[in-house]
Automatic annotation (TrEMBL):
GO terms for biological process: lipid biosynthetic process. InterPro entries: Alkyl-DHAP_Synthase, FAD-bd_oxidored_4_C, FAD-bd_PCMH, FAD-bd_PCMH-like_sf, FAD-bd_PCMH_sub1, FAD-bd_PCMH_sub2, FAD-linked_Oxase-like_C, Oxid_FAD_bind_N. Residues 84-264 form the FAD-binding PCMH-type domain. This is FAD-binding oxidoreductase. It holds the Pfam family FAD-oxidase_C. The record marks R299 as: Important for enzyme activity. The active site is at Y448. It comes from Alkalimarinus sediminis. Keywords: FAD, Flavoprotein.
Amino acid sequence: MRRWNGWGDEANSMDLPPTADNFLTERVGTATPLPNITLEDAVAKVPASRLPAHPLIVTAEEDRVRHARGQSLPDLFATRSGDFGVFPDGVAYPETSDQVAELLKFCSEKDVLVIPYGGGTSVVGHVNPFQSEKPILTIDMGRMNRLMDLDEESQIATFGAGTPGPQVEAQLHARGYTLGHFPQSFELATLGGWVASRSSGQQSLRYGRIEQLFAGGRMETPKGRLDIPTFPASSAGPDIREMVLGSEGRMGIISEVKVRVSKLADQENFYVIFFPDWSKAKNAAKALVQSRIQLSMLRLSNAIETETQLALAGHELQIALMEKALSFRGASTGKCMMTLGLTGSKDQCKASLAQLKKITKSFNGVYTGTMLGKRWEEKRFTMPYLREALWDKGYAVDTLETATNWENVDTLLNKMEESLRTALNSENEKVHVFTHLSHFYGQGCSIYTTYVYRTADSYEKTLDRWAKLKHSTSEVIVNNGGTISHQHGVGKDHAPFLPVEKGELGIFAIRTLCDAFDPEKRMNPGTLLVDDK
């Protein structure tokens, strides 16, 4: 059963090692957890629905609770405290594109606002209802979750847009294929949501981001059905496919997704290399990517993240022995950990491994083989459960991410970390901040920063702390050469910062495009673009 007030399956959790308490106390301080309400208490808060009856719409209180919030830190505060704010008036579970079209027609006739819902994994407010005089319908795409067609000659697969990551891969693996799109939210996030938010997967160096994988499909809009054909390439004017990518439910609801798939690789391994300092590590990463070595993934942790990961990994004796060996080889205090993936044929992987060893050695990299890489692979989709484990101990954890050119990486990273580290100084509160580079390009890379702070003595004060941290650092990002989002999308939380990136004319163009498909402005208001109240 999926958690109603947190991440993932209730049967899954992440246990912190015994060393975690001392580490967190030293870095942040002793914490006291806040109380959590029960599902029964939450259900009791749901008001009567304002929606007219429809055979595809459910107005049961628990359904509305489970669709009231996404997975951002403020969403966690809402579900744990019971201060939801607004609930959708109903939830629909269509099973076909025709039913999605029927629901949109109903909403137009009855003047109902619409929120599309995939896996509910948004961390920036995409799926959250909002205060409105009009009723709000959430359309959950989760029943449109099957492989509808696989063209093996062209390697194009057609899925229902509500198919979550594990089902995408399971249905393709059965036919000998993979999509290769593995965001950290893979367990719950859906194919349609990836397209709508321009998602990026952990192995995008091999398979590409979702914009390279998305070949076409279908979107139901208030103005009718939009079918997007699948060409390998085209110079016939602006790309409709690109218009749909990143539209975040403002133009319509993606109901079918056609994606470019690949044959399953012969082998795949993950490796870890340590570098003596950040400068050598970053320059090694840049050299690897710009040399176009056939890596499938690359992740580089700065010194504080490396220290944090090793401290929270458990296996104290093994880690101590490894630290001793690394120190002997020149990677001690200030060392940075790089995780790499090689995917392909045996010969391809062998050649790429030789290349990466040669390049990383020139930057004093210490190659440690696959042991730590295997542990990363085993836990690659479990990190969201860390938030639950920290919350139970009285700590809040969140992330900020961006992307920038290589020449600006250090400047922006340092300003982001400094902004977060000092944002709560007025309250004499410490914030533990660490960063990794998670996606790489010849031009630059993404910056993914995590911050941990103590909960206050109330949910309201804890949310105020988050707002200080989030808003001040978002301003730093957009005013210092970074995009407001590399992989999480815009949602409602990032919408106020988008005009800095797009400019006045750019925002006008985006709004005009959305209005062309949704002239009544009923599709996900407040998301992507700031709307008048």
